[in-house]
Amino acid sequence: MIKVGDTLPATTLMEFSEVEGNGCSIGPNPVDVAKATAGKTIALFALPGAFTPTCSAKHVPGYVEKFSELKAAGVDEIWCVSVNDAFVMGAWARDQKTDGKVRMLGDGSAEFAKATGLFLDLTARGMGVRSNRYSMLVKDGKVASLNVEGPGKFEVSDAATLLAQAKA
């Protein structure tokens, strides 16, 4: 499992863009994790799935709400990563009103989740391989803090916890 001090795995996430602009085409666009984190501070949180109850009611809304405070604490970008395709993440972004605040990144084949060791096998529950629920503060591609939730919990990966770590 990835730990504090480790570099994020060299993987590619996918992001859906609503409108064309700044060289982005409409539709899924690859996000090279190494390039996208270079020289930046990223508040990254991951969760089991888009549109799921805790994720939609608490996890994403908390980061949208704390956007300005996280930026003031030196965070350049906020990323939400889930084992869903870019189209689902785009629809969820519209539903959660994350535009301009949280980048909704799809890990459709669970490559990032597997490479970090932060994955769950929920096949028995009909969900396949998913991401564990966690948050991390990433500085220049390296993990500066990591908060992994226990099974079925939502206690340490919330926006308030990561904000306190960003301020420290």
Number of extended strands: 9
Strand content: 25-35%
At CATH level 2, the architecture is: 3-Layer(aba) Sandwich
Q: What is the radius of gyration?
A: 15 Å
Structure described in brief:
By secondary structure, this protein is an alpha+beta fold. The chain has helices at residues 33-37, 53-65, 67-72, 86-96, 111-116, 159-167, and strands at 12-17, 27-32, 41-47, 77-82, 102-106, 119-122, 128-131, 134-139, 142-148. A seven-stranded mixed β-sheet has the order 2-1-5-4-3-8-9.
Please specify the SSE layout and strand pairing.
Blueprint: E1 12-17, E2 27-32, H1 33-37, E3 41-47, H2 53-65, H3 67-72, E4 77-82, H4 86-96, E5 102-106, H5 111-116, E6 119-122, E7 128-131, E8 134-139, E9 142-148, H6 159-167
Parallel strand pairs: 3-4, 4-5
Antiparallel strand pairs: 1-2, 1-5, 3-8, 6-7, 8-9
Question: Mind explaining what this structure looks like?
Answer:
The protein has about 170 residues and is α+β, with helices and mostly antiparallel strands. Helix content is about 30%, strand content about 30%. It is built from 6 helices and 9 strands. The protein has a 7-stranded mixed sheet. A two-stranded antiparallel ribbon has the order 6-7. Strand 4, helix 4 and strand 5 form a beta-alpha-beta unit. The longest helix has 13 residues, at about 55-65. The chain starts with 11 loop residues before the first strand and ends with a helix. The mean pLDDT is about 95.
What keyword list fits this structure?
168 residues, alpha+beta, Glutaredoxin, seven-stranded mixed beta sheet, 30% helix, globular
